[in-house]
Amino acid sequence: MKTFEYDILSFPMTRKTSLADMRTGLNEKGADGWEVVSISSSEFANIGLTVFLKRETTTIGATA
Fold it and tell me: Whole-prediction pTM value?
């Protein structure tokens, strides 16, 4: 059975470079196996974006 772990990132959109910073951060997470599953505008991220990610976990010795 597949299992997953999840992470949440917040990106406040306060500067011109915010989208570039977001791209860099997401590319770094992607290189570690994370996949974006949802993006939401968020007041608790200073009127920015909240990104929800997941990646499959590797369970050693697990049986199906």
Answer: 0.75
